[in-house]
Amino acid sequence: MKLLVAAHASELTAFEADIPGFERLLTGVGKIPAASALTRALCQGEYDEIVVVGTAGAIDDAVEGGIYDIAGAIQHDVKGLDGTFGEHVSLPPRVDTGHDGLIIATGDHFVDDAQTVALIRGLGARLVDMESYALIWVAQQFGVPIRILRAVSDRAQDGATELWDVVVERCSHQLRDEFRTRYGV
Length: 185
Prior knowledge:
Elements (H helix, E strand, L loop, with lengths): L1 E5 L15 E5 L4 H14 L4 E10 L8 E9 L18 E3 L5 E5 L7 H8 L5 E3 L2 H11 L3 E9 L5 H24 L2
Parallel strand pairs: 1-2, 1-3, 3-8, 4-6, 6-7
Antiparallel strand pairs: 3-7, 4-5, 4-8
Helix pairs in contact: 1-3
């Protein structure tokens, strides 16, 4: 059995309630809800793979709309003891999925301004979201393979919050098509 994971219900709009071979988990938005929900699910069941679907903001002008595999995640809302931006005091600077793809920066606030984008881009990420780092870290603790598929919903600039509400359904349909292609269901 595989676990289909999304943070927000609207990211699953195009997905049927029952997909053969998959159980569904809606985590809630942000690192803490994502980590908590996935930990509970992995304590209660055994899964061959975790498949995360959802949206992300593009912070690299070369990243066009579409679906991207996530190779790894960093955190953009933490600082180390020495004040180093992007480093946590006790967690690894980067967690990896084991797949080829883009690096995503995860943080507990919706990125929607050029100044923040420039700062995060300096960490080497090409996308931003609010859950990937936490989901990868939890999956690693349980030894369960994880794949994260992100649809670009916005450019993480001024007005991105309003834009997300408009494009999330389109992103969900793109994700469902990609999911069907990869998993045959």
